[in-house]
Amino acid sequence: MSSATTKRPEACGHENCGSRRFHVGDDGFTYCDRGHQQSERGTVVAEDTGEFVIAGRKARRKDSEAESTTSRASGLSGPRAFEHYLLCLQLVLRKQLRWLIETKKLPEELETLVRDLWALRLQRLRTRVSYDSESETDTQSHYFSSQSEGETFASEASARNRKQNRTRIDGTPNVLDTLALCYMGTLLLREPVLVADIHRWVSDGELPYYHAAKNVPIGMRERLPPVYQELLEPTLLGKPEKLQNHVLEVLASLNTEFGIALPPINYPLILYRWMRALALPIEVFAATSRLARLLDIAFAFTLDAKLGTKNLVLRYPEVQLMAVLVVATKLLFPFDDNKRAAASATAMDALAMNWSAWTELQVSQTTDGDAGRPFRYEEALDYSQTDVLGASEHQLDQYMDWCEHNIASEDIRERGKAGRDADFRRILFGMFPVREDGTTRRDDPGGAKLSDDVEAEQLRTVQAALQARRIVEQPDPGQIHASGIGGSYRRIKTAGELEGPDKVFYERASELAGLSLDAMVKAVSQIERKLQKHEEKVRKGGED
């Protein structure tokens, strides 16, 4: 006697719903008890005979490999589904641009520049789309319209193996590409926007990236096949180096195919920003500029660097600038306590830094900044029950704000069982709004001014702590440390050698440059090696 084993139905896979109860709606689609449409289950069509029909067992056909790029709800597949995905991604790009222009007050020309870069990006996708009777220019304008859905594709996707599907998806534009295009647009406008800025805005949930699909109307999202919907839900951005590498990849691709080259960064404005953030004396600005000219560093992207070379970390202009800044600071204001003398009262090394006072200011600024900033995406995902129990009221409010912005949804479905309660849901949302009218989630008009005031106060404190060095116009031959510039210069090869003020300085520098501490140490070491080779070359020339 054998016993039959009942197989439990698969759970609903929509946004971690987990429901296992399903029913067939009036439109023929299958819905879970929470109203989520199960497009992979297909439709049930029955002839209306006027009789009461008792439904029997239903067999669900397994998806084939070709159906991973097909939306059963809309019938979009192949080139038509790909075109619709590009329209959705383009809408996300426009939302990102409007945020940069309206919130960060960047020029309106940014949208025009990024539109042209986006059109060039689409040029690479000719093999995946068909233009029919449209001209190339009309098609590019149509893509950036985001007001209509093109009907230029007529072919349907044929059966493909899994490897071919994966290859096609790997070459598909994604949300990370839109961030790279936005940064390239700001660089073309010579705006002092850093890769670290883009990364911070994304991590703070201000610049659209995580849950980018929420910026697309639900009607457009539902027409996308699952494989394209997944691309609009990007994973963790990771460290800033990942975004820097992707910017370099996009730039190298555009340079190879269209000959596009980005100009150097606007280093005077960026250097000014960093000096205020690090509370450094004005002498460092002049020393950094002179050192860059001496070493012939243009602060531009290096596209011809080969993998495995020692200068690979110096491919990025922002890393080059920060590395030169660190070397210039170490030359003028060493971190040790050795007594040094200056050649004159007007020399660049006539003053000495009080690194103990500087370290206290930087540590306090970091602590206050971490307490006041909103939750970042990575931190919120790692928030555990223990963290919630030990959190303060302010931290809980921040965490709930993050959950509301990234997890909670007020989308109202119009079809299926959930569509029957659409009017009730609208009334319910109106009776219990998440926040009062007129308030915003993250707008802080006084935040930028407060940050400027803090930096100005720290700069005044550091300037007041500067000490004058002893003046020795003609030092004795046996006198040690007679010259301040370069005397007893300490080269650091690994991050483990850092301690005290130099460790705090390197950490702050790597944070501002969007680089890890190990990579920052390596970049500074390479600049020091360049300077050493230049000095040896000058000495050999003098001897000859």
UniProtKB/TrEMBL annotation:
Residues 12-40 form the RRN7-type domain. One of its GO terms (biological process) is nucleolar large rRNA transcription by RNA polymerase I. Residues 240-407 form the Rrn7/TAF1B C-terminal cyclin domain. GO terms for molecular function: RNA polymerase I core promoter sequence-specific DNA binding; zinc ion binding. Residues 517-544 form a coiled coil. Residues 136-169 are annotated as: Disordered. Residues 138-150 have a biased composition (Polar residues). Keywords: Coiled coil, DNA-binding, Metal-binding, Nucleus, Transcription, Transcription regulation, Zinc, Zinc-finger. It is found in: Nucleus, Nucleolus. It comes from the Eukaryota. This is Uncharacterized protein. It comes from Friedmanniomyces simplex.
